[in-house]
Amino acid sequence: MFATIIEPDLEGYHIVMDYGEGGNKSISVDFLRLSKGEDIERVFMSEEAVWVILEGEAKWEVSDGLSAVFKRDSAFDELPKAVYLAPESIMKVVSLSPTTEFAILRSRVETKDVHPSMIVESKRVREVRRDEYGVSYLLREVISEDFPASRLLVAETVIEYPNWGDFPPTKFEEGERLSLFRIRGKGFGLFYSYSGEEFDEKEAVVIQDYSVIFDNGYRSFAPSPNSAIYCLWGLVSTNRKVAEIFEEIA
Question: Are the C-beta atoms of residues 103 and 48 closer than 8 Å to each other?
């Protein structure tokens, strides 16, 4: 497991965790924070990318001819809006609010596996909620297994609980997974990762605001009392299966 923190005063475009860091080979995450009127233009060669707006308002333009204006006041309370960017496509973003934040998940792809760029409106997002024993679990599929992407799967998880509560342990049989966390309130979170059925090789890390964690194997995370935790996670896998996680919580 490998963890890092995005500095709260970070401005502009930054590669947070690149290929080769912490044992990661297949997935990377970038972070972008723009002030009103600022813009940025990016192109990824031989990579597919998913741009998710975390907070703020922005205009997107893609060289494929796509464009949209997205607004999101809170990643905790509102459905995600995103852009799937095909390799070699040019992406231009302009911030329309005082501050706009984005997370960008990337994965290398072969030329033969290229899919066209697409805008992911909120109405395309599958949302699953469970409220039980005072625990609120919310899962949102941003790039699902039936989305025409090559390797990336992207989803969000939000957990709110007045006391300690955690996300049910889950495991993918293959692939690499990377998560970006946000904390609402003055609390923190805990992240657990372990590899075997007997819960051996345990690892744990304290989740702060803007934490980024790369892990494989079983994982579970939890917010502290009277706080909420948001997790944007990406998975790179050849079989692109995520249904087990939704079946477990639904």
Answer: no
Mean of the per-residue pLDDT values of the chain: 84
Q: Whose CA is closest to 3, among 206, 228, 242?
A: 206
> What backbone torsions phi and psi does residue 81 show, to the nearest 5 degrees?
-130, 140
8-249 belongs to CATH 2.60.120.10: yes
Amino acid at 162: P
In this predicted model, what pLDDT tens digit does every residue of 94-146 receive, in sequence order? 999 999 999 999 998 876 667 889 999 888 898 888 776 666 788 899 998 88
Return the domain boundaries, the chain: 8-249
Among 243, 246, 245, 195, which residue's Cα sits nearest to residue 218?
195
Q: How many CB atoms lie within 10 A of CB 196?
A: 10
Please tell me the pTM assigned to this model. Answer: 0.88
Residue 76 has, within 13 A of its CA and on its CB side, a CA count of: 12
Instruction: Write 112-117 long-range contacts (CB < 8 A, 24+).
Output: 113/150, 113/151, 114/48, 114/86, 114/87, 114/150, 115/48, 115/84, 115/86, 115/148, 115/149, 115/150, 116/64, 116/86, 116/148, 117/62, 117/64, 117/66, 117/83, 117/84, 117/85, 117/86, 117/89
Instruction: Flag whether pLDDT at 199 surpasses 60.
Output: no
**For the CA atoms of the chain, what is the radius of gyration?**
17
Asked if residues 75 and 122 have their Cβ atoms less than 8 Å apart, the reply is no
Quickly state the pLDDT bin for 200 (edges 50, 70, 90).
low
